[in-house]
Amino acid sequence: MSVMKWTAAAAVGLMLGLPAGADAKDLKIASGAPPPHPATSHLYNALAEYLAEDPNKTFNVIQLGPEVVGLGAMKDGLQTGLVDMGNLLPLYFPAELPNFALAGELSLSGKDAHAMGAALTEYTVNCAECQQELKDFGIVYLGSGSSDPYMLLTKTPVKTAEDLKGLRLRSGGAPYSRFAENFGAVPVSISVLETFEAMSQGTIDGTMASIGDLLAFRLVELVKGATAIPLGTYFSTSNFATAQAAWDDMTPEERGILLEAANRANANFTQRWGYDFPGIARKAAEEAGIEFVEADPALVQAAADFATADRETAAQVSQERFGMDDASDRVAEFIALVEKWEAISEEVGHDRDAMAQRVWDEVWSKVDLATYGQ
Q: If residue 327 lies in a helix (H) or strand (E), which one and from where to where?
């Protein structure tokens, strides 16, 4: 994939008589996350590294930190031109991105990180309604990634459904709020960046999150118990949401260079967030004395049953709130893609590079970059 693409890009540069690095386009990028988080360390840093491999140095990458634009401000940053490319979380804006966010409503169905990122990528690229609303929003979509399966990270260990009752839990979106409410907990919708402060001040009792958050957001200092139950994965991401103006200013060849780097970085990010970082965080948690609680089988089964039943709820929500009459069909379409990519991920042994190649072959190689995002 890469050798052929880079050779083609270099040939284009030579044909135009441009030396390496001439007329490089400034590309302001922002992960919206702190440096330890995989969204920075293995997504946006990786993008910069991959773009640096371009022999023509097409892009001059300028990275902006969360102190300039955080996740909550990413929409404004993209729409005002503060950033050209940013990490956008669609569940923060369901009213404006209902078609795209429908898949996010199915977060509880996630199991395999690579499969979920790939499934959402294929779904969104080929969903005409998703593409139109992204255009109306002012961004171009370049792929998604996923976390590992979420856990309950709490100040008091949770083992049974009874233990959940009354707990105030940080929720990253509607499906997690529904889960909390179903088990008698109280969902609290705050930015993930505010989790540490909210837990330390007693505003919340814990969070439904990746175990990696123990390190990414310093929760290892506050959490006392970690409980694994079927909570799905967080995959409702637009990892490299590109401002329409920036995309329009690129040639198809430049878009291809950017897209290939983004596709590789998406897989790199998912490998880190979904597979490698959890192991590192677990070791740190053990050293900190955090208890890894084996959930009561009844709670595990109840959580799994709720995740399956919540698919229909997701369809109903989309139909009632946004008039999406074919929501059930779209849910079925997305779940079929999840099953397809779970099989592929299993086939390649959840290998990062193999998954990047398959996503390229199955999705991006079929996209006309002269018209995509227009």
A: helix 327-347
Same domain, residue pair 13 and 33: yes
Single pTM value for the model:
0.88
H helices present in 228-296, as ranges: 244-248, 252-271, 277-287
Confidence band (pLDDT; 50, 70, 90) for 19? very low
Cβ-based neighbours of 153, under 8 Å, separated by 6 or more = 206, 207, 208, 209, 211, 213, 214, 219, 223, 225, 226
Q: How many CB atoms lie within 10 A of CB 62?
A: 13
Would you say residue 15 has pLDDT above 60? no
Q: Using CA atoms, how far apart are residues 329 and 311, in angstroms rounded to an integer?
A: 11
Q: Residue 37: inside a domain, yes or no? A: yes
**Count of domains forming the chain:** 2
Strands 85-88, 25-30: pairing is: parallel
The CATH number of whichever domain residue 136 belongs to comes to 3.40.190.170
- How far is Cα 209 from Cα 67, in angstroms, rounded to an integer? 23
CA distance 194 to 122: 32
pLDDT tens digits, one per residue of 126-145: 999 999 999 999 999 999 99
Model pLDDT for residues 270-281, shown as the tens digit of each residue: 999 999 999 999
β-bridge mates for residue 139, sequence order? 243
Looking at the structure, do residues 100 and 157 belong to the same domain, yes or no?
no
pLDDT, averaged across the chain: 92
CA distances from 331 to 14, 120, 243, 326, 336 (A): 47, 12, 28, 9, 9
Choose among 136, 108, 372: nearest CA to 234: 108
Q: What is the pLDDT of residue 14?
A: 29
* Domain assignment present for 374: no
Task: Let me know if residue 329 belongs to a domain.
Answer: yes
